[in-house]
Specification:
By secondary structure, the chain is an alpha+beta fold. Helix content is 41%, strand content 12%.
């Protein structure tokens, strides 16, 4: 199951601990080894794209990587 917990609609970076808590909440219903983390949608999910700079997009992807490493290991 893929958890789209990182929004692509806003440049505001999610709180890492909140994302981790949400993953652990989902793990109460689905085993952790069957859960995955991703952005909730593409960064250009509409014709004009979303109002995020390239750096803001990369920051979101770094957050996904950091959370995944912390929750599931390297």
């Amino acid at each position: 199951m893929v958890l789209g917990l990182i929004t692509t609609k806003s440049p505001v970076l999610e709180d890492k601990q909140v994302v981790i808590s949400r993953i652990h909440e989902a793990a109460k219903y689905v085993p952790l080894d069957r859960l995955y983390l991703s952005p909730q949608c593409g960064f250009a999910s509409c014709e004009i794209g979303n109002k995020l700079t390239e750096e803001e997009q990369w920051a979101k992807m770094r957050l996904v990587k950091e959370v995944a490493e912390e929750v599931w290991g390297r």
